[in-house]
Amino acid sequence: IQYHTHRCNKIISIGIPTLFLLIVLFFLAPFI
Description:
Elements: H1 2-28
């Protein structure tokens, strides 16, 4: 269970900033 939680935390900590960057790029793309 602890290993599974650690894996989920790793995915979340990587996934959320990546998703945020993609959203920012998506909104900025027309202006670049």
